[in-house]
Design brief:
heterodimer, A: 481 residues, alpha+beta, Phosphatase 2c, domain 1, six-stranded antiparallel sheet, five-stranded antiparallel sheet, B: 448 residues, Immunoglobulin-like, Four Helix Bundle (Hemerythrin (Met), subunit A), 3 domains, seven-stranded mixed sheet, globular, disordered N terminus
Amino acid sequence: MSQMPQPTALSRCPSCEEPLEAADRFCGACGYDLSAVSAPPQDHPTITMNGTSAGLPPAAPSVDWPLAPEVDSADVSAPVHRAADIRGTDSGGSELPHPEHPEHPHGDPAGVRPSVAKRPAGQPSGVRFDRPSEPDEYPLAPPAGEVRTAEGHPADGPDREVPADPRTADLPAPPAGAKVCVACRSGQVDTDGYCENCGHAQPRERDHMEQELGAVAAVSDRGLRHHRNEDAFAISSTALPDGSPAVVAVVCDGVSSATRPDEASLAASRAANESLLAALPLGTHPQQAMHEAIVAASEAVNALADPSTAQGEHAPHVNAPACTIVSAVVTSALLIVGWVGDSRVYWIPVDRSSLPARLTEDDSWAAQMVAAGLMNEAEAYADERAHAITGWLGADAYELEPHTVSFKPDRPGVVVVCTDGLWNYAEAAEDMAEVVPLDAAERPLHSAQVLVGHALDGGGHDNVTVAVMPFPAPSQGAGSA
Amino acid sequence: MANFSKSNVPQFSVDVYQNEYLPEGGREVNAIVTVSATGGGTIGSAVAAPHLYTAGQGPDAAVAIMVDCSGSMDYPPAKMRNARDATAAAIDTLRDGVHFAVIGGTHVAKEVYPGNGRLAVADTATRDQAKQALRKLSAGGGTAIGTWLRLADRLLSSAEVSIRHGIVLTDGRNEHESPEDLRAALDSCAGRFTCDARGVGTDWEVKEVTGIASALLGTADIVADPAALAADFTHMMETAMGKEVADVALRLWTPVGTEIKFVKQVAPTVEELTARRAEAGPRAGDYPTGSWGDESRDYHVCVQVPTAAVGQEMLAARVSLVIPQGDGSVQNLGAQGLVRAVWTDDMVASTSINPQVAHYTGQAELAQVIQQGLDLRKAGDVDGATAKLGRAVQLAGASGNADTAKLLAKVVDVVDAAAGTVRLKARVAEADEMTLETRSTKTVRVKK
């Protein structure tokens, strides 16, 4: 543990890689002003973390970094270090110096810096961040059919606008029936899913997905800052042996620092859904069925890690596909939730005078800190490591610990099953209740759309997926699976 | 007429290496495009001229060997003798059925074999006759390489073949025609045949020889010791015989609003292609790559795209391979690669440099600083030359370009390779300097 605010927490000069002493304010080799390192990025991505090793809270108060001086002590302009001044880049081995990304200012500088690309191949790491570790290849889906809804949808928002210059005079008029680019609205879409005129990628099927199935509805959106949707969901309804309805929702959030997180989330959501659909009609206790579904989902994700399907040189380190999972089963009397990771279930009573509740406990660094009494919730969630997850589905997960809980709500309500792309914008149950429409139980799809819209309005920094299901399960929704 | 026999035309593949992530506002997309051609026999009709091929045999080819017969070839006399021997060795390497001719070059071009504006067809008898004819080669006269190339073009175009190739051997400067004449000859021959160029001895001009090879998409090299000519000619001819498909062009499609900053071949040698673009329909252009056997080459493509919002993705370029046909249509070779741009606010993703791009950026700089350093050295700018060649030593060492590092070590004394500290050698053998200059564009591939 560190006792004092340190002049620098860097182990090496960000400019010349010279090893530094703890008290250095300037690099001894090149004179780089070590106080000039900028603040870490503001975004709070999902990260996963080994809860035992790196999880100690910093005892030192946060450091007020002085501003970089414009001139040095001799009144000469301070030297500017550009990326191009620094030689040597090799994602396989040596490190890229990024002055913009200082080591974590607290404690062990090698701790949780988000440089997952440095991790040696095959070494399972307890720490993961929900951002791409390095450029990866993935195929574009062929142009999908009707994908984005027109009304109030981000596809029409300012973020989707394309730089002007529709020099399209030389384009043949698109034949009737051909897909026209959503960006420039004049080029045709080629077989790879790009516009033949402006080159823009066309919306993929998973960029925005909506599904409504009687008593349950789900919406998933790519968000505004990510280039693909790595979330996935599955919803269905079936009947228990006594003929009463059971409604299922599964939501998964792919871990971006893993390879093929989108495949992981899709496989997990499908496997869990199928497992529940198989077990529930046979009379398996729903909580047992939930446990088995998460195990099945885990196996489905593990299966993706087959090295023969790994993308060789594009993904030099074996970083198995991984995702979170959260699922809820609603019957006429029971509400069962199960999860691994930091995707959540919220309970919102129809009668808003009673209290809403969060029904899941994140497998996350912040949750562990709070649970251990080491930090209060505000402190924990303000930390850079807050979103590091400590449990996930994937071949490199340490140990699968599915959490399942069974509830017997005494009043009607709606169950909101969501990824952190939503709850980042409505963390507390009360906040979530504020944004869930009052008629959510009657109009689940509309409510899911509203919730996704809330996340997009808040910035849409992550993929957003939410399923909304009323409790108790209405009997007309049964048996339609 | 359909021919159902399998051909030897190779199968092409395209791989793209890039970091597609751009920061907010980022516009420059860099990618290394690896084009590989591997042993054919599988794509049958998807070739330029399948009717010309017969089963179990390479494609029809025509080769013209242009031997310098200027007066200087007699000093020392071994040079002419070695040139004759080398040409004979090259003729021995000709596959049966290949059309060929030998041209003796001075200030004019003379047909040495077979004569009368024809090409011979290689077989045991014609090979012997050609070697007999070589004995008549004698030194005397000037040097006007443009005339040699124009004669080679006339002869090669008389044959209905798919691969046309020339070999130029010179030992002196192109003194008996203006640089403009040579330029005009190269322009008229470009795209009509490919040509390797070799300088023997040390009295020739490096930029002339490399210029010929560059314009005609062949290789350039120095053969400082005339005794090594035969081995070099054999190797060159073997390579020519291995060519299976000619006139392949790298086709680049880019969307509206993009600007192509450059297109360069970066392996096996650095070759600037940007200015050689031939427009090929809306938003597409073709860059010539010459003829291909079983081989792999790398290209560095740099495109400037209009910026887009974070989270957006676009296709910055589509790379494919085509063979332009005489009638304006093209034969598409099937393989294609996509160069993408994805805007992200993840600084780690957007600031990392793809290792292949970094490597070849260094290799291109290496070729450039060697050229600049040698030019400065010739101009007497010791400090400038030392700085440039020091940088070259640093780059060659860091990238593992051992051959170039060895050549550099003959021109400079290396004090600290990692820091690029060097001293110019006081005395440098002319052959060493010319070798370095001629081979400065040779690159090594990135270690995988």
